[in-house]
């Protein structure tokens, strides 16, 4: 009886925190997105507080949908049409009931609804993994959600899809999982591939290390072969002369850039997370970096336990942690196809890393040993 009362208290407190989170998002919106005149950075003395560039792109697609109605031509193989169509349809429905909202305000409302659902799914995963309900409150450590609540973006939807996939797989709700896989194409065309690769890692009880090695070699070589066609989806000049260009160059010439250097590129994501602490740029503050700090600190605290799960990969792929570990595998397998490194994509998987780290911490508390296996 006392436990049920404690759980109810946590649930009530969680929704109080979500109300505070919503209020924070409205303040953030008022400061950085409302009536900004759609100017590029710096906005009012701040760097990168919102993703204005992508918002412009989606608005241009919405404008084309309204003018031409040619959905087939606009769709193509890109990540812009689907989310633009979603917002166009929502905006049109609201207009039919005489509710006028500009797309900036509409995006804030939609993103907050998506995040409330994501919070519920995050909590469900915590429960199903047998963790103390108090850990559901760690959802609010995810400070980048303030950023993802602003303007039209695919990121809030992507976080929800990732969490839903994990939740469905834990419960063996495979019908819902496959429906989600199909619908996810509307948000990002990489997501169906991500979820199918995740499924490949999750199913089966043997040969986890062999599966990982085979997938790594296959996807790396495939990336090498397809590298020459990637120029159709990005500007080669954006690679500068760093690691990304070296990988791209080796791929186009010898097909082995990804095979040899993907581990280094994976470490680059961690490096990009750490430079969030360097958020002062001249006389302005880089909000795009500063917003990550609370969650990066939390993940740094969990890092010994996350290293443990890597060192004991075979062991934990046979345990409940496999549902989380498999998603991280799938992320690196699919997103390293992208020639460039962008921390924003890695942040989408921080909730998964967070729960995995918590699981490993609880294991340590129970066993009194950091290394298992």
Q: Could you describe the 3D structure shown?
A:
The protein is mostly helical and 373 residues long. 67% of the residues lie in helices and 2% in strands. The chain has 18 helices and three strands. The chain has a three-stranded mixed β-sheet. Strand 2 and strand 3 form a beta hairpin. The chain is globular, with a radius of gyration of 21 Å. The two termini are 37 Å apart. The model has no long low-confidence stretch (mean pLDDT 90).
Roughly what is the average pLDDT, rounded to an integer? 90
Shape: globular
Structural class: mainly alpha
Strand content: under 5%
In angstroms, what is the radius of gyration?
21 Å
Briefly say what this structure is:
By secondary structure, this protein is mainly α. It is 67% helix and 2% strand.
Task: Give the key terms.
mainly alpha, three-stranded mixed β-sheet, 18 helices, 3 strands, 2% strand
Layout of secondary structure:
Elements: H1 2-32, E1 46-47, H2 52-68, H3 71-75, H4 81-96, H5 103-128, H6 145-148, H7 155-170, H8 174-183, H9 191-202, H10 208-226, H11 243-254, H12 257-274, E2 280-281, E3 284-286, H13 287-290, H14 293-311, H15 313-316, H16 322-335, H17 343-347, H18 350-367
Parallel strand pairs: 1-3
Antiparallel strand pairs: 2-3
Helix pairs in contact: 2-4, 5-7, 7-8, 7-9, 9-16, 10-11, 10-12, 11-12, 14-18, 16-18
